[in-house]
Here is the input.
Amino acid sequence: MLKPLLFVSAVVFLAITASSASAPTPQEAAQATASGQKNPVKPTPMTQARAKKLYQIDCAFCHGDNGDGKTDLAKEMSLTLGDWTNPKTLADKPDQELFNVIRNGKGKMPAEAEGRAKDIEVWSLILYVRGLAKETPAAAPAASN
Here is the structure.
């Protein structure tokens, strides 16, 4: 009885150790993504349909179907999420910054792992989110070098 318990404990310990060792530090992640890359995606009906599907699967639960950030889960978690239906909300956020937040996570928001979405899909997702604004979608500000 004790041997299986020790074995399971050792496996869990090794899994935790391996996962923490392979994760980049916040400083490494910031350096890796601080290139100021511009969004390489040009929206097409196909890329935006895929982005909408990805949004519905991975984002809408917290950010809302329309992007207003007013969801039951956000309230339960005491989160104040930006209202993406307001064009001013993302007006001063470059696409690269949004990419970094989506890919690496921020606060209670989990990272969108590369296994779940390729970079091109994340870039498309950014265009989709910008398009949720009720008025003219906010254009991405130029990346500062």
Remarks:
- The chain has seven helices and no strands.
- The longest helix spans residues 2-22.
- The mean pLDDT is 78.
